Amino acid sequence: GCKLLDSFAIFIQICLGAVAFSTLIIKRQREQPQRPLLIWGLDISKQLMGGAVVHALNVIASYFTGGNHEGQHSNPCVWYFLNILVDTTIGIGVVWAFIKIVHIIATRYRLSGLQSGVYGGPPFRKQVKRWGKQMVVYVCALLTMKIFVVLLFQLFPSIAVFGKWMLGWTMGNHKLQVVFVMLIFPLTMNTMQFWILDTIVK
């Protein structure tokens, strides 16, 4: 059936990553005022690393989510589709809330370097140190989001019925299913997510 880790699926994933993140370059060209290249690079690197973490977790979750009560294997494409759908909708709110809470705590207790997108002036080593703190916060926000999503799936396993219904037109053609759930659908949803998260983290 559907495979998310064979050579074809990996090629599709590389295409997705390249196209989705390239849209952030377009977003920078449209910014007013435009961030300095260094600041933009530090901001984008958070999304690059965070995106890699979430993608890996989505693939893993797609194989292990959704019970196996009747001894039947669930379709990982269905669960990957559902992961992307929830990540790029409800998940954005979870990430925003986490970063907002950290910002409030940092302001209240005067913790330096945690205000997202603020790296201070030279030297570069000091800027990287602040970026590192913010990177940890961002990854923790993403991990919190994924825990929330997985718990949601555990509480409502019947959501798989919705996923199967949405992908019904691809059943029987596994390559088409992989292209849709790992390229076409994520490209649309992740582009929107990247633009919104870039606004949050900058």
Q: What is the gist of this entry?
A:
This protein is mainly α and 202 residues long. The chain is built from seven helices and no strands. Pfam families: STIMATE.
Q: How many alpha or pi helices?
A: 7
Share of β-strand residues: under 5%
Largest sheet: none
Instruction: Give the topology string: H per helix, E per strand.
Output: HHHHHHH
Keywords: Membrane, Transmembrane, Transmembrane helix
Protein name: Vaculolar membrane protein-domain-containing protein
Transmembrane segments: 6-26, 47-66, 78-99, 135-156, 176-197
InterPro entries: STIMATE/YPL162C (IPR022127)
Name its key features.
202 residues, mainly alpha, membrane
If you had to describe this structure to a student in words, what would you say it looks like?
The protein is mainly alpha-helical. It has one domain (7-201). Helices cover 75% and strands 0% of the residues.
